[in-house]
Hints:
Layout: H1 2-14, H2 27-32, H3 34-45, H4 56-69, H5 73-85, H6 90-104, H7 106-123, H8 142-157, H9 161-172, H10 183-196, H11 203-212, H12 217-231, H13 233-254, E1 275-276, E2 282-283, E3 287-293, E4 300-307, E5 312-313, E6 316-317, E7 322-329, E8 331-335, E9 341-343, E10 348-351, E11 357-361, E12 367-374, E13 382-383
Antiparallel strand pairs: 1-3, 2-5, 3-4, 4-12, 6-13, 7-10, 7-12, 8-9, 8-11
Residues 316, 318, 322, 351, 357, 359 line the site of manganese (II) ion (MN).
Amino acid sequence: xxxxxxxxxxxxxxxxxxxxxxxxxxxxxxxxxxxxxxxxxxxxxxxxxxxxxxxxxxxxxxxxxxxxxxxxxxxxxxxxxxxxxxxxxxxxxxxxxxxxxxxxxxxxxxxxxxxxxxxxxxxxxxxxxxxxxxxxxxxxxxxxxxxxxxxxxxxxxxxxxxxxxxxxxxxxxxxxxxxxxxxxxxxxxxxxxxxxxxxxxxxxxxxxxxxxxxxxxxxxxxxxxxxxxxxxxxxxxxxxxxxxxxxxxxxxxxxxxxxxxxxxxxxxxxxxxxxxxxxxxxxxxxxxxxxxxxxxxxxxxxxxxxxxxxxxxxxxxxxxxxxxxxxxxxxxxxxxxxxxxxxxxxxxxxxxxxxxxxxxxxxxxxxxxxxxxxxxxxxxxxxxxxxxxxxxxxx
Length: 395
Ligand code: MN
């Protein structure tokens, strides 16, 4: 005994005993088609029916609607019983059958009646209390209903006036307004009937309606997958591109409008003439024009500085450094402790952050440069003392 118990414990620890599934397939299937029986137990009932993204109640509604729409009376009885067990009410089954008369045809609905009667009789469900429907019809969303009615008038009324009238007055005016089956469930069984019968043309309208009524995208994905098993793979696969188009269109409609293309900003010279550089920061008087300061939050600014001969900056530094691009004339740049370096048009100078320096024209020639500097809290330059005549290179 002890040995047997320890072996059992070892097996349990290994955890690899094959998973067993409830036997759901009919016994005949085990004899006629063992793979069908095995797939029925393991995949259809062991996996698909257990997927949580669509509950058992919805799966039963989908299955029953598929069987009714496809005229599978032989399987309907068992699934009607399962539907009742899964929480579909007799009233909802009653309404589903009536609803599918319109979407799969009267014969399909009438055939379902006999199966439902057998199930109700077996369970003692009497017509009357269980099938009593609340009195007040549902109100349809007025704008959507007006659009739908207008589309029917435009497309159908000219060819088949009585069909248009029945569509507007009976199908949408009565059936869709019956409160015994929630609008989301009416949409669900309608989708099922369309997919199960391969009617892709009507699918977009009813997909939109179902999503508006609260069917979620994950549920929709489960419905299509579930249908593959009950209506066949081709029906499910044919629905997929239609669903994809509808979802893409809804995503596009819901996406925020693209931001307008940004506008060019042109600062005209006439409106912003050059102004003299502040006297305290220069020897001589440079003209500072084409000043630019990019948007608040972006931290560079600068301008075009034109020095007459002999004019120059004071000693100064830049907290984020500075770039100079020489555009005309001849000039100097000098760092603290270094030699004055000559500047010619086209030269580019990088002045590292915090480095004490000056720049300006030569004594004999004017010089102009573009200056670009980063700012710290709005400040690009720390100004110091003038460059003395003794420090300034001679002619
Ligand atoms: Mn500088």
